[in-house]
Amino acid sequence: MTENYAVLPEAEEFFYPGNEIGVLISHGFTGSTQSMRYLGQRIAEQGYTVYGPRLTGHGTDPEDMEQSSFQNWIADVEAGLEKLKETCQTIFVAGLSMGGTLTLYLGENHPELAGIMPINAAIDMPELKQNYESFRNTDKRFLEGIGSDIKKEGVKELAYPLTPIKSMGDLLSLMELVRRDLRKVTVPTLIFVSDIDHVVPPENSKEVYETISSPDKAIVQLKNSYHVATLDNDKELIAEECIKFIKAHI
Predict the structure, then answer these.
(1) pTM score
(2) Are strands 142-144 and 21-26 parallel, antiparallel or unpaired?
(3) pLDDT at 146 (0 to 100)
């Protein structure tokens, strides 16, 4: 039986009701909605309906995450789309890191979307794969966390201090699934990529740009942020570019 874990302060889902334009926003692997709330608020200020779900096993305890799977995370964003469809005619999706991976997944499977905005999306992480292969058949359950890769001084991401090894396997499965089907993405796509990222190699975004089938696609370089760009020096630029992209596609 699954234990009930308390949701950490600032890790709760967020929902800002607005007009018939909906935006689904997904946080990343071992992270929480705290990393995406600023972006969500800025988009909501434009009058749009914004929903940021808390992915299963996140924002509570690493042991909780260990019990979840990549199928749960896919189900979470699918449910998020359904929630927005109740009141919205037009829907966009944005996500950071694994949230970007899930954004691409929705882009592959929902050609009705108005557009997607992956931020430092993960489709290939050789170092994580190597770590997973090294420890998957051992008694070790957790490795050191990967959160808070932020250039700006004094800013901290609300993320787990430990990463469940089992969950690393789930992330690898999700990335493999999404990477294989990238050509299925035909919706307008705005890709954000940090020049320096210590978690997801920036080459991931280049591969996404080159592989997707969308005729309408662009890359925004984030020159002053590391991986968690939505909390970093470029968070304002990300918000502005997302809003501009939404306005151009409604």
Answers:
(1) 0.97
(2) unpaired
(3) 83
Is there a catalytic annotation at residue 173? no
Please name every residue paired with 25 in a beta bridge, in sequence order, or none if there are none: 94
Whether 227 is a known active-site residue: answer: yes
- Distances in Å between the Cα of 126 and the Cα atoms of 39, 122, 123, 132, 194 are 29, 11, 10, 10, 18
Parts of the chain with a pLDDT under 50: 1
pLDDT at position 242, please?
A: 98
Contact 114, 84 (CB under 8 A): no
What's the rounded Cα separation, in Å, for the pair 15 and 49?
8
85-143 pLDDT, tens digit each: 999 999 999 999 999 999 999 999 999 999 999 999 999 999 999 999 999 999 999 99
Domain boundaries, the chain: 14-248
Q: Which of 26, 68, 97, 167 is catalytic?
A: 97
Among residues 194, 227, 232, 234, the one annotated as catalytic is 227
DSSP letters along 67-101, please?
T--HHHHHHHHHHHHHHHHTT-SEEEEEEETHHHH
**Integer angstrom CA distances of residue 69 from 23, 83, 168, 205, 211:** 24, 21, 10, 24, 26
Candidates 64, 197, 232, 234; catalytic one: 197
14-248: CATH number = 3.40.50.1820
